Amino acid sequence: MSDWNALSDEAFRAQAREYFEREFPAEYKFLARRMRWAECRDWYQKLSRKGWIAPNWPIEHGGMGLSPTKLLIFYEEIEHAGVGRMPDQGLTMVGPTLIHFGNAAQRAEYLPKIIAGEAVWCQGYSEPNAGSDLASLHTEAVLDGDDFVINGSKIWTSMAHDATHIYVLARTDKQARKRQEGISFLLVDMKTPGITLRTIRNIAGHEEFCQVFFDNVRTPQSNLVGELNQGWTIAKGLLGFERLNIGSPRRPLQAMEKLEALATARGLMADPAFVERLTQLKLDLADHNSLYRRFVDQVRRGESLGPDVSMLKVWSMDTYQRLSELVLEAAGEYGVMTGDVDFDGTAIDVLAPFYNSRPGTIYGGSNEIQRNILAKYVLQLPS
Amino acid sequence: MSDWNALSDEAFRAQAREYFEREFPAEYKFLARRMRWAECRDWYQKLSRKGWIAPNWPIEHGGMGLSPTKLLIFYEEIEHAGVGRMPDQGLTMVGPTLIHFGNAAQRAEYLPKIIAGEAVWCQGYSEPNAGSDLASLHTEAVLDGDDFVINGSKIWTSMAHDATHIYVLARTDKQARKRQEGISFLLVDMKTPGITLRTIRNIAGHEEFCQVFFDNVRTPQSNLVGELNQGWTIAKGLLGFERLNIGSPRRPLQAMEKLEALATARGLMADPAFVERLTQLKLDLADHNSLYRRFVDQVRRGESLGPDVSMLKVWSMDTYQRLSELVLEAAGEYGVMTGDVDFDGTAIDVLAPFYNSRPGTIYGGSNEIQRNILAKYVLQLPS
Amino acid sequence: MNQPDNSHAELLAQSVSAYVQHGADLPRVRALAQTQLEFDPKQWQELADLGWLGILAPESCGGLGLGLAEVAIVAEGLGRALTPEPYTPVAVLAAAILTPLAGATLPMAILNDLVAGLATPVLAAQEQADDFSAQLVATVATPQTGGIQLDGVKSFVVGAAGASGFLVTAHHEQEPLLCWVPGETQGCHVRLIPLADGRTAGEVRLDHALVSEAHILARGARVRELLDRALDYAQVITAAELLGVLKKTQEMSLEYMKTRIQFGKAIGSFQVLQHRAVDLLIQQELAAAVLAEVIQEMSHTPMSVESRAMAASRAKARCADAALMITRAAIQFHGAIGFTEDCDVGLYVKRAMTLAAYLGNSRAHRQRYARLAAVGHQEAA
Amino acid sequence: MNQPDNSHAELLAQSVSAYVQHGADLPRVRALAQTQLEFDPKQWQELADLGWLGILAPESCGGLGLGLAEVAIVAEGLGRALTPEPYTPVAVLAAAILTPLAGATLPMAILNDLVAGLATPVLAAQEQADDFSAQLVATVATPQTGGIQLDGVKSFVVGAAGASGFLVTAHHEQEPLLCWVPGETQGCHVRLIPLADGRTAGEVRLDHALVSEAHILARGARVRELLDRALDYAQVITAAELLGVLKKTQEMSLEYMKTRIQFGKAIGSFQVLQHRAVDLLIQQELAAAVLAEVIQEMSHTPMSVESRAMAASRAKARCADAALMITRAAIQFHGAIGFTEDCDVGLYVKRAMTLAAYLGNSRAHRQRYARLAAVGHQEAA
Prior knowledge:
The complex is a heterotetramer, with two copies of chain A and two copies of chain C. By secondary structure, chain A is an alpha+beta fold.
């Protein structure tokens, strides 16, 4: 394992660029949808073997331990090369959670499997009709011998049809005084009997989400993360990681790559009115990077994330949407053609950023909810 | 009195342009602040003699009875010639109110004086600390013999220091069940003993507002408009006129005139990025005209204005502010110089639209309040 | 153009309302990606039977000889109903080109068939992206024994999937021509490109396509005049379709906001969502006001070519922007459900997008408006 | 530039905080329109005594020889305090020009006096509006008996009201010169133009202004280098001042929102106002993050002239936009009271405006950024 942080930024960028461009399978470059596990397993494991699968994890757990600046370079090069989005819940959510809240046995069991690509995780949070009101959950888990027995259903579970494991928030004390109390955080193997799936097509026609049904699903007590009935604390900690992840500049960067390619292909870089708007967005993204580095630095120093991390998510997803809308506008009549459109030899799926950027203001707590959180906990405005 | 509506639009525009450009005193053209009565009395009375002082009033009361299209042309030419804003509460508020809610004696007494410029009105609505919560008013009027005796104070009264009369909302029944009940609408001569004034300088340093104090001020019962304790109904009707007035394209037009003059003087019309933004605002204004005509037509057909007129005010003042902000941006380093700035022979006060456009989103019920009204009464959203 | 006849307008509004209520188009639209049935002959015949295809066409061709106001009522309804058939391309754009030519035999015959639902002529004039005025004509017309040979490629031909033939622009030496090219003409190849809303745009390739001399419908400066007028009409009526789309979407959002409960309250009680809905209401009302005024102006006021184009651009730009804003916001209002294929909102989002791009997006229309305004400004100065 | 010394930074932060708390500048600023005392020698001496004028200047001139990070701490505080004195023009812009020249006698003497508060040199380079890089130099330097004669007009000289003299750019034949022109030089006329915040910008007219040969501080390409670096510094430090202005204003708004009651509730409980305040918070945090990063880069990373300019533009553009947004919103949050002269908000609005325009507004900086990015792009390709 190298100390990537010791390299100069330029050298690190050059290595990453060269590697991604050479090694990432051409047929999946700039894919309009998220990659299916079958499509990306090889790539995942190749990255894993190179030691590059977990850029944000500490080195002792198999990560790269990158500094904020290096991490941003890494992301920029991933997007520059058009590397597709893999099922990444294990890397962005479960891993950091187990590192912070799990016990030694859980870390030993699960972290290496995530690094190796042997376990693919999905998130069992939202429930039908609950929307952003996460604490209203009804799925329940009852201790029966050494197992929890789970009943209920989760929805909007991204890529559950490719997952080997799911982490679930379930109600373990129905008598709790407040809705946030009496919830526990459980790990579940997707092969457990009693789990069934229904896939849900998204607006772009892709099977991205699932509803996951739990019918007397048993998971051993050892899969309880943290204390019984204290799951909300973990979920909140996890939300910090989620917001940092959704708040990273990766997705806007992806759209910016497309926008610049499109603008170049359509000769828009000679149009001052377009360049003005592009520049505003470029600065929005550059400044987003600066703010992101601040939060990544905080995590890297071992500090926990406060409610202020919500601002990253709000800005990231708003910027992403604004970028995707300018892509469509810049594409003009091409902006309504589905699939790859050929612009003098450059193939661009102009609709993909538009569709892909829509859910970001909804999931992980809608941007409205994030603003409520910021108003209450950061600005301390009265309710 | 001519039937101006019988003229072609072009002929009417030509007449108005020629007249305003020739007759309006050059020293007051494009004045940065509202005109004081001493400055505009002659002009007011000249317009009155020509029959042009009340473009929106019915002909039978001394108005021009203009069609919506003609009215817009009239306003456009006023702004094109840089005619200053006179104390206009009599024309825009009191007149229409008395026509709708006043009795014959009140109409006979007050309307001709407004037309002749013998009475200058101001508005006694807001009270200290009440803000947009108009119904919270504390000023009270008690019937004593044939007079109401008024005690209390009104604030943010524009140009009260030039007014000969004030219309006042006062509480006449303190036992009323709801805050909106027990309020009456009274007319008061400003020379009445017991009235004192304090002027308030605005952000631009101009004496625009006043606080008006009432200390046992007597006004005859005949100055009660409408029924006793029913003033809220009149106030609401009046708010419709106010919103139509503030919602007219006059003020944004004023800023657009400056913006175009500035852009021409600074060579910005050759900058496609600027032209793109200018065009968006031009269309925002043109489309505003279309919407405004719809409401003016409604008034002209004798229909009363519903809560939907609030949308005109919101759009008008938002557009005005956006225009004023582009003026500053387009002025660059000149955009922070006070007073008239010379742009190769064209003198433009670039800061004036900025300052003048600020209160429009606050007074007459802030834009936030207008949106609340629209949500509740037009969209019928739950509260 | 006739004076507006309120009885016509009322009758039309009633039949349109009945059609929309019936709601038969939505399931068809949802299935488009599978069925490719954007042009359903049965459905088209229904439109013909309702008399809607002939609103602009003269009575001599079986039409109603009415104007933009009436055709806009239908278009707004079809926007609401999300009807995928090419109403505007055929019954407005093609009909408006053919109507002034209806004195001649062939145009009259095509119009007759158009009104009856038997012919679906579609304009194939544009050759380059975003050249929605179809100024650029590289397509060549060469006189040959037996007629005129056409060579060139026409793009962004919306409605091509159901077209019985094409109104094609071409040049012979310096002279512009407008020709009728039946779909079955040898050398006329249509490639369909799928669009976001499940419909298609055609690329019409003319490869030594030979039509008889009699198929030349117009030539010279007349071609430009016909095109300009018809394109302005089609832009305005597309704006009307967009108005239907956006009004219906806003209704769906408001309905959802009143019934969807979160944190124990209807989400429509949250002030932030209320104000957003209000800002969209203002956009809706601006769009409606502009469209009504532009139709009024174009129907009753003598207008220069430039003023007419500016008016059309104003309507298209506002209605397109309002529709995009309202449909995108509808996804957010609906939350996760709004992002699923099952939710109707997505269908409206996509239709708004294709209509907004059709015949020039709002940016292109603002640019045209600015260009024409600058010319007007110089002339006035 | 030295490594950042946290002890220095902490001490500075403490003294700045004490200065801001004292709050003596606000009444002065409010009275500016009457007093015209934007440069109060007593106040200036206090800044000198605090050591703040000499942060950038070398120790050999009595300065601290520190960097942007430390000077930004002071500037942010002065932004908060609304201090009208020309701190950035003198202690950053002029000091950054003079520091690399401090080996020579005259610059060292001026710097010495600057640090002590005895001299207030101000750059007079710009000749045309919005040419904030001062590229254009029509001012002519002509050798004469007894020295160099300068003729030309310099505009937008912020700080001219209190200037003891000017750092003037001029051309002799093709060669650029940088000259020291003491304020009392015959033929040096200053006209003050009032700005929105009660301060002034000077127009410096040089009419046969004669200075000795020894007053030529630099010549040739060195002049451009000195100017570019110092202007970038001054832009970044103006951004820091803006950050102080915007943070203080946001605090005032939040405080008001928590205490002002309407309809029986604190207005800060209304969701629409909460979300607006949050969006402004995000702008504030973006501004702070960008500024911190840019200062870090400019202090510790070897940068090309282009990268340095891009970094400076990024900081200035974001801080200016954030400050304008936050101060304008503050008027709305405060309601009618926010629109009165009596309310402090207006003072912050106006200072934000003048600082945002000083050395290029955000639009100008975005344009410079785009221009330099395009050049970088081409070189990389």
